[in-house]
Known about the structure:
By secondary structure, the protein is of the alpha/beta class. The chain contains nine helices and twelve strands.
Amino acid sequence: MMPAPARAPSPSLRAPSFRGARLVSRRASVVVSPPRRRASSRAAASDGDAPAAGAPLRVAVSGAGGRTGSLVMKLLASDPASFAPPRGLVRSPKSADKLRGTLRDAVPDFSDARVEIVEGDVGSDSDLDRLCADRDALVVLTSAVPKPKIPSLLVALVSKIVPWMEARRPEFYFPEDGSPERVDWLGQKAQVDAAARSGSVRRVVVVSSMGGTQVDNFLNTMGGGGDVGSANILLWKRKAEMYLVARSPELEHVVVHPGGLLDKPGGERELLVGVDDRLLDGDRRSVPRADVARVVCGALLDPSAVAVSFDLASREPGEGDRGPTRTNEDVAELIASLRGETADYSKPGKKSPVPLP
């Protein structure tokens, strides 16, 4: 099938310098399935809202204090030619100090002027308005975090040691104010609304998770036994993604579904892309956080990465013939290899215990 036709770059985004007139994937090992065509890019923003041509992109990052968020902030702050000092949202002064320390250790010639840190909450419209004000793009890295039930950890450990005991898995719960419904649906919806209210944000990049088509995925059972809002983290994430997709073409969207996140170095692995959780059928279902951060930054700069939702995994270092993904140009080529394919948001449909649009 022929690649999707080339799109004109959005005037609100700074395009990287590519070699050649268009991007065509030459890497046969990329996972690609029969495509569904993406929607065309949104109409151009008014000159008053868009930055000057070639100006560094002004990016806001929610969840900036997290492990993946801090890596995104590091890449943004390390590339002043492409990005203005990024603005990151953290939840507390302690998180702000930790993020500054991380960046100070990781970014050459770092100074506090290289970043802007906002302390706030995704449940506060005023905090989100401060985050999105005068920004060109928003990266969403917030997520509910499951907590293990300590007794269940002990039982699971014993079940692995005692040969006659049936294997047990740990049990998890979500804090009342940190449920998937509250964080991954309502909190993310509020961020999308703030981006639209800003009048300047044109692109929203969401880091979600694979498994959103699978009602019985293990991650959806975390917090199980309570109300539907206390579990089904992947389905609440999917509901938020669908809300964002419905805002097109008002907001350009890129949704990345990484597999299991690894605290391993980036730029050492061949990355794999696909849609609709088909990568979960293979034996390569994880990806380093550092590579996820690289894909996020590449997607911010790629003018053709519009209205696309895809899955992301990686091979082991040294596997594959395509080589590791290291540059923004590599990321753009990886996304282009999807050839217009994007997630089918009719899945999982009526099977979902979370009410989906």
